[in-house]
Amino acid sequence: MTTQAARNKDARGDVAERAARLVAESFVFNATEAPTSGREPARMMFTGLDPIDDALLAGWRAQGYNALLIPQGFLDVTTLGPLAHPVEHALRVFARWNAWVAAHPDELMLLTRPESFDVARASGRIGFLVGTHCGGEIFRTVDDVDFYHDVGLRHALLTCFGQNRLGTSADEGAEHDGGLTRYGRAIIERMNRLGMAVDVSHSGPKTRREALEVSAKPALVTHGNAAAICPTARNNSDEMLKALAAHGGVIGLMFWRPMVRLEDPVTLEHVLDHFDHVCQLIGPQHVGLGLETPMIGFDACENSFGPAASVSYLKNIRSMDIPELCGPDRVRTLVEGLIRRGYSDADIAGMLGGNFVRAFQAIMTA
Fold first, then answer.
1. I need a labelling partner for 214 at 20 to 30 A (CA). Which of 61, 104, 127, 245 fits?
2. Which long-range contacts (CB under 8 A, 24 or more apart) does 267-272 make?
């Protein structure tokens, strides 16, 4: 081995060692975790109706997670099973996840109060949140926000697909975005009062902007990327990112291939381009992880989106995954890339989870 080759190997080793140390020492919080069932072939647990497999815990530990948020789709599930209403669906899903957390008191805990994050850090348990990925359909009245807060809900998307009583989703197109409704404003005001995170990830640009203006507490984009790097309707304009930061919010950047780059190839370096752009624009203190892609990848799941998916912003992506960012080492792989791009340990620790913890604690504080 030449001297230069030896130096290169040592440098790679130093980066890998530093990355592993940062993941081990930081509070790693994935603000959009997409779990998969333990069956073969694996299924996406989007609706929360698949059996909850204890193998999930091993996967979360392997990736280095200290906390995570699972957004569940509370839909009209008449085609999925016996339930006929999103509210019935939501109650069943919360009962299942809450019971599973209660059955693992040494491994898991619910994140329901500002101090819960500190307890999770000190105890070594994984902090756990169930959020919504359906939009505001479960809020039949404003008082339903209180009802769901009582069962543990601390996060809700305003919209997901199409339009609802709160506002308009990104897939409708900016020209059809009617903005936040009067009812949507009332829901946000109640969420603020109770300490529930307002998530505008899937909202259209006008709805996003108006939600930020209405919310008295930091709003979140738990899973999204930069439109300047990948121009899809779901990604965020520079104007939106600046507004998010001005209101104290955080964006969780994604590994999901259709929102990283529209053309092949799509690699770790393209994900890092999103981190660079957003950090340079609004500062690393407003950046976190919202990976969404499951550890094994979407493509490995039998009920995943396919190339002909009907969601308008998917374009013609042939694969949903970035192979080097699948598997148990994916967070460490990302951190190695951030190190090579020159980020400090403090900035990386914030992006791994500290920034989302700060935001959620501010949101949950009465």
1. 127
2. 267/322, 267/324, 268/322, 268/324, 268/325, 268/333, 268/334, 268/337, 269/337, 270/229, 271/322, 271/325, 271/334, 271/337, 272/337, 272/338, 272/341
Residue entry with tokens 């698949």:
50
pLDDT value of position 250: 98
Q: Strands 29-30 and 67-72: what pairing?
A: parallel
Cα–Cα dist 27/322, whole Å: 24
213 Cβ neighbours under 8 A, 6+ residues apart: none
DSSP 65-105: -SEEEEEE-----TTTSS--SHHHHHHHHHHHHHHHHHT-T
Q: Which helix (H) or strand (E) holds 186?
A: helix 182-194
Torsion of CA 173, 178, 183, 188, to 10 degrees: 60
CATH of 3-364, one of 3.40.50.20, 3.40.50.720, 3.20.20.140, 3.40.50.2300: 3.20.20.140
Instruction: Give the residue-averaged pLDDT of 175-197.
Output: 96
3-state class (DSSP) for residue 117: helix
137 in Cβ contact with 164 (< 8 Å) = yes
pLDDT over 70 percentage in the chain:
90
Task: Say what the pTM is.
Answer: 0.92
Domain ranges in the chain? 3-364
What is the distance between the alpha carbons of residues 296 and 283, in angstroms, rounded to a whole number? 31
- Encoding tokens for residue 302? 């039998």
What are the tokens at 281?
Answer: 């624009």
Distance CA 328, CA 312 (A): 31
